[in-house]
Amino acid sequence: MKGRWFILLLGQIFLFAFNSPSIAQSSSARDPYLVVLGTLQDGGSPHLGCEKDCCKNIDPHKKVVSLGVVDPVNGKRFLFEATPDISSQLKSLNQALLVQPGKSPDGIFLTHAHIGHYAGLMHLGREAMNSHSVPVYAMPKMKMFLEGNGPWSQLVTLNNIQINPLSEGKWENISPTIKVKPMLVPHRDEYSETVGYIIEGPHKKILFIPDIDKWEKWRTDIVSLIKEVDHALIDGTFFSAAEVGNRNIAEIPHPLVQESLELFDSLPTKEKEKIIFIHFNHTNPLLDEKSDASKQLQLGGFKRATLNMRINL
């Protein structure tokens, strides 16, 4: 067992030491952690139909929004969101534990039924991985949607996935050291409800809300909630309305980052430092660390999520 642990630890050091910022490094290397596996909005980049400069080149490091949650001691790893980039994201997650690159995760948590958040489930079917009973955690409407509509229903009937129902506000223990709680948030719920998650380890509590319509539409006060957690990965889809162009922004009512910065401006520095924006549209200047928007974010005391960012739990 000691030999296995030593090899596992070396693998984690190799994977994260040189190419990813870490938060709360004071925690033990044996503690569970979260790793950012993607930061982009559903359409990814290059975005289909986009002819702007932001989509002229293919950047293999740009992945659709996803988190990996790892319990090193118990050898468990979980995906939050099943994105179109699930193949490379799961491979990266498996490398963290030195397991087979194609090994299925110990569970997948879904937030809602928009393409960037669940479409990756198709890779678990017999056309690709042909997995066996991968636990997929979903809220009631999301569960009904998957069970009642092809091709997702085929994953259920062929036992590629096993849907584990979630309830709002109820903790789900997913390993001896990690538990997860879903929270309903307002969003465009055409096929399912939408949730964010609180992910809690032995030392840290993380909020994850990649999609929400507007903060003021939510019955929960986001400012108060941020005070209750250690880090908050929140919707940063659009920096400003200028990105939307000719499209009606009322059809895609995410909180603009500029609006969020104004809302959080009065928070003390220690609270601002908890806030990490994620789920960037391909037009979002925050994707460029050298942009004025990124500099404004940093000067304000806030952060932006980056690929392979690691947060100890």
General description of the model:
- With 313 residues, this protein is an alpha/beta fold.
- The protein has a single domain (15-304), classed as Metallo-beta-lactamase, Chain A, CATH 3.60.15.
- It has helices spanning 2-16, 86-96, 115-118, 140-148, 152-157, 222-228, 257-263, 269-272, 292-299, and strands at residues 22-23, 33-38, 66-71, 76-80, 108-109, 134-138, 161-165, 172-175, 178-184, 195-200, 205-209, 231-235, 275-278, 303-304, 310-312.
- The strands form 2 sheets. An 8-stranded mixed sheet has the order 1-15-2-3-4-5-6-7.
- It is globular, with a radius of gyration of 19 Å.
Shape: globular
Which strand order spans the largest sheet, edge to edge or round the barrel? 1-15-2-3-4-5-6-7
Report the CATH architecture.
Answer: 4-Layer Sandwich
Order of helices and strands: HEEEEHEHEHHEEEEEHEHHEHEE
Q: Quickly name the level 1 CATH class.
A: Alpha Beta
Strand content: 15-25%
Helix count equals: 9
CATH topology: Metallo-beta-lactamase, Chain A
Q: Write down the Rg.
A: 19 Å
- Classified in CATH, the superfamily is Ribonuclease Z/Hydroxyacylglutathione hydrolase-like
pLDDT < 50 stretches: 4-19
End-to-end Cα distance: 23 Å
The total count of strands amounts to 15
Overall structural class, as computed from helix and strand content, comes to alpha/beta
